[in-house]
Amino acid sequence: MASISNWVRYMAHKLEYSLTLSLKNHTREKLSERELIGIVWKNLFYGRITYLHSGKGQEMTPTMGTNDNTLLVRKLPYVDTRYVFVGDAVVLKDPNETNKYLVRRLAALEGSEMISSDEKDEPFVLEKDQCWVVAENKEIKPKEAYDSRTFGPVSMSDIVGRAIYCLRTAVDHGPVSNSEFAMEEDSPILAVELNVDEMAKDHKA
């Protein structure tokens, strides 16, 4: 059971997410004040700020297993350098198939100079709102890894969440190792919304 301090921090995160989502809807759809308050209330008291994502593949071994995995993913109020950090395992839209999603490690953010180990490649700097994501499996050759080394930089807006817990099998599961700051920020959300039994039911393996 989550502690009182975790509940307080969790509700603060949830309020921030609810307000942000509501304001985005208001900007896009020009909601009335009553509709805006209704959305905030609904998201705050009935919504969740995590969702389950199923994925497989050897690219993210050892964080994820080679077979089916069920991830608990935190929804982010904004996707910028205040909310995602180098080292985070992020869920993002596939750059080549936007109806599919990938899980990759965030390796660099806007303003970072990218230098290739191949001398033929020219160094370059990531532009505003760009990031660089990589597969985690060190045994995969760079040119065979489906990540920024093959498809290039991706837009920060393509990131939809951060993986915070992974269920590989019914007996093999645990928190995802992210940046230190992200793990501290996500800890109350994990304490309140993690339900391993629910994840196991959703698991396809």
Automatic annotation (TrEMBL):
The keyword Hydrolase applies. Keywords: Hydrolase, Protease. GO terms for molecular function: serine-type endopeptidase activity. It comes from the Eukaryota. The keyword Lipid biosynthesis does not apply. GO terms for biological process: signal peptide processing. InterPro entries: LexA/Signal_pep-like_sf, Mitochondrial_IM_protease, Peptidase_S26. This is Mitochondrial inner membrane protease subunit 1. It comes from Noccaea caerulescens. The lineage of its organism: Eukaryota, Viridiplantae, Streptophyta, Embryophyta, Tracheophyta.
